[in-house]
Amino acid sequence: MLANWEFACSAVEAGYFSLLCEDDYQLPDFFQAAAREMNRHPEIGLCFGVTNVVDEDGRHLSIAPNEMATVYYLAGEGAVAMMTLQHPSTPAIHFRAACLKAGEGIRWALSLLMMLGLTVWLVVFGLAEMIMVHMVERPLVKSRQLLGAIRQCFSDK
């Protein structure tokens, strides 16, 4: 997984990017709001919002995840807030490409943790330890994949 992230990040030519699955799509209103905030505040390394969970027909089912204050989090505080207040959906994260590319210092730790079976969240939390994070009010994506993951969690119990 880390190799996939490294390859994907090395191919990014834009200043910002998001990782989306085939059934996710960004909402333009969020993209504009996130880009505006990140342009105003170059210290922000990632910006995230809520995800609208929809069914296979596109009907709105819920918003994920839990509420988190719409504020700027300093490096380290953003990671703590994400872990204690909510778990933002991966597609709902807007990354500053330069920050992710500069995150080589956390590569060895992420490699080890990923080998132990942990997920892409390690990349997000690792970055949030190093850079400023911003939570915005606007939804970023609609996700059917998240709905499938939620169903899987409850069907396993």
From TrEMBL:
Domain of life: Bacteria
Cited InterPro entries: Nucleotide-diphossugar_trans
Alphabetic keyword roster: Membrane, Transmembrane, Transmembrane helix
Bilayer-crossing regions: 108-128
Designated name of the protein: Uncharacterized protein
Organism lineage string: Bacteria, Pseudomonadati, Pseudomonadota, Betaproteobacteria, Candidatus Desulfobacillus
